[in-house]
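re: that chain from earlier
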Amino acid sequence: MTLGMVILGRQGSGKGTQAVHIAERFQIVHISTGDMLRSAVQEGTELGLKAKSIMDSGGLVTDDVVNGIVAERLAKDDVQNSGFLLDGYPRTVGQATELKQLVGDSLKLAINLDVSIEEVTQRMMSRGREDDTPEAIARRLELYEAETAPLIEWFENENILCVIDGLGTEIEVHRRVIEEIQRNI
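^ sequence. v structure.
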């Protein structure tokens, strides 16, 4: 594996959009947790079937199942040959520690798109999705904050955290992201 990165950011920060651009620019594989889980279920892997059973019963997929699915995905040839950008993983310090054990020094950078709670709330409200009520958005953001604060600190302690201002146009943010990546890898 050559280049490994993680992208973090509150819901509505634009990380999905930036992840696609980063993957294209650096010719690495963009891997989202949701896509990974769906793919493992579709392929019928042992871990995929475990995840399906947990999800079908309304539960949250456990760290060991998610870590296993990530390990399976990172072992595939496209990732081995090109590198990766993880989007939506890791979500906990335990997952980050597992990732570090899996990929070692290939993990070069954790990009945190920093956008204020007020701004992401406004962005999500303007999307007009049914599940984007002020209460639901506030709950999701509270959960994100609780989960992510220790994770951000973990990446900082690993000296691979890069915080980028996520305000501005898509192009302005992308320029900042690319400059930081090039400065840090």
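The two ends are 14 Å apart (CA to CA).
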